[in-house]
User: What shape does this take?
Amino acid sequence: MSLMKLVSPISAALLCIGCASSSPTPSAPENQAGTAQNAQVVKSRDGTYTGEVIGKAAPGSKFSKLQIGMSMGEVQEIMGGTPDRFHTYESGKRWIPFYFGNDARRMQVLFKNEGCLIFTDGNAWGGAGGDLVQIEVDPSGACYKP
Assistant: This one.
């Protein structure tokens, strides 16, 4: 088999893998960098990844106490219970061969009168997830997109 016949399929596969995306569907208009116009990029509590905070929580509100990187349990403790609504969806990482991280799925939750949160929600086969990656302050609840 010629070298060119072998390189072409491998190159095509690598190109497809590199194009996979894991960004959640943004709820605010995007700028050219791909983040919401009023979004602030924030490091997680342990500093290993970044997340987004969209909008500004009122001082003393429950949302003002949240931090990127918190677990669902920590968030529920601060918020005083379970979310009012939630749903899960696949991220682009779901289609990366041999991806075993916890971000192949995402979970969006709504806390009425506060806003929406997005968590990682495990890999394609279940697994552990639950890291807070996006906080959107929106008391109207319009941020929730099922």
